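Forum > Structural Biology > Help requests

Title: Can anyone predict the 3D structure of PKD domain-containing protein?

Hi all, first post here. I have the sequence for PKD domain-containing protein but no way to get a structure on my laptop. I'd be grateful if someone could post the structure tokens.
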Amino acid sequence: MPCGAATNGQCCGGACGAAPRTERGPRVRAVVGPKTVAARARRAVHVRRDAGARSVRNPPCGCIPSHSRRESMNRRILSVAIGASLLSVALPGLGAELRTVERPVEGRYIVVLKNQTARLSAESVRGVSDVPTVARTMSNKHRAKLVRSYQHVLRGFVVEADDASLAQLLRDPTVAYVEEDSQGSIYATQNNATWGIDRTDQRNLPLSTTYTYDTDAAGVHAYILDTGIRADHTEFTGRMGNGFSARPGDPSTADCHGHGTHVAGTVAGTTWGIAKKAIVHPIRTFNCQGGGQASEAIAAIDWVAANHIKPAVANMSFGFPGSTAIDDSVNNLINSGVVVVAAAGNSNDDACSGSPRRVPRALTIGASDRNDARSVWSSSQQSGWGTCVDLFAPGTDIISAGISSATASAPNSGTSMATPHVAGVAALYLATHPSATPDEVHAAIVDNATPGKITGNLRGSPNLLLHSLFSGGPGPGNNAPVANFTSSASGLTVQFTDTSSDSDGTIASRSWNFGDGSPASTAANPSKTYAAAGTYTVSLTVTDDDGATHTKTASVTVGTGGVQTYSNTVDVNIPDNNATGVTSTINVAGRSGNAPSNAQVSVDIQHTYQQDLIVDLVAPDGSVYNLWNRQGNSSNNVIIVNRVVNLSSEPLNGAWKLRVADRASIDTGYINSWSVTF
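Reply #1:
Sure, ran it for you. Structure tokens for PKD domain-containing protein below:
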């Protein structure tokens, strides 16, 4: 079977033996004995569109197409008839909607809160609790089991609930809607040789047997929401970023299926990939059998929103039944600055009928074969189509990285294989346009596509084929620089040292903003004397010899005494559930005697669950001073400002280290900066 998003909630192989269904997408219903009504609703045969949407006679597989992609989300209001009568949207006493899905997870629900009920991590609203706090309170109140909560892309949480608890949740006035959790899965089929990247760099056939690219996308981050990635594969040597597993009780991001490694290889493999030096991040969303749930996909999206490093693209070669919760999460991920690319599906159906492929701001990708025809693998297994498709890309007989060994390759087919071609091209564009918004990248890729090449029955799909070479932007081969710096303070004076790098050129210019309103400096290693003691936000913007830029921002603290502040602002990723942890080092030299009894340590750690962390200051002789020991709560980040530590038994000179260990699974983060003052 070919791979890709499918209308029955499957990723990579939507037909997979599933029979056509009568209905598709989220359905609104009332509840009297929730599970009983849910079962009856799934047997319903009557679907009514709202006024203004066109009627469709015998839509394929129960799909409800809309006038256009932009209307599809707003114009789909469904009601379900049981027998000869229609259920109303809500019965008296039930305030929130219960939305049913195809292939539900029995007894598990995604609860989405009203905006004023709880705050997301990026919001600061006085008197309003964060989502995890509200989730714990509500699940206890309504006697439901809390499974997980979200903090970044969805104001909601997941519970296991019986009929009585579900009814209470639906009556709660703080709930916007409740959606059944749904099943998704991945299946793959193996075929023959690859040709895909060869097709992307030329407008016309025949194939040239070469692939030309004007950047290798070094410095761009590709987040692969899939079955994991084989991290030791030679296709990704030196380019594996941190990752996350949304699988309950299984923190590993290793790929025990093969789909995720194959997808990652097309995005950024050294041999098989489009963006050959992009950094790949394994976001494990599906299990070893290719199965997963919507609540887990949302958890994966939530993690990427909190932890991504820009410029960033997320590949979603999977599909679920229409899910408002997934749609909302994807939109919020895009709002956070991440380009999203989604598969159009393999079940020969309308891409507007499933999630995330129906999200308008996502790039939704159909599959084409080596003859530029819309991919047809069998009578039922064909590329998804319709107005929600943005363009087509190679998706039949694609060779990429395999998991049988660190050098293995494997062939696969499906819109799952087409999608990473586009994610790779998005990475290429971001490499030369690192400040581009997701909407700008979306427009650039669609506008740059080759028109009129796709043959076959497109059924309303745009006739556009992916093209990977863009005109304009910085010169060929340019990769953006990476800005970094260190600092050392003595009294009111700070010595800054530029540690920036450029992988394919040189740093042509620098601009320092010292955070006190004084003129910027263009020196490589400037010395700055502040007028008053305090903490200042300093930024360094570097520009390379081809015009690309990058900025690093960190805080420095100065005082009026004879003390000095030493800082390390280089980001260090913290591995998930790892007792050893990582260290960030500050070297002190040229001092005499011991440190004082009132030394001050400041720490900025960006992490999505502060209670996971143990943070220690390690002196040059190996003595350990604990700063944080799995305290706090489910809130984000560990921020320590001027913690007083008695270091009087420690010599000043030597290598001082901040050691951070994450002792729990799922949430991850990085050391942003830290400093010691003595």
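Residues 415-432 form the longest helix (18 residues). The first strand starts at residue 10 and ends at 11.
Shout if anything looks off.
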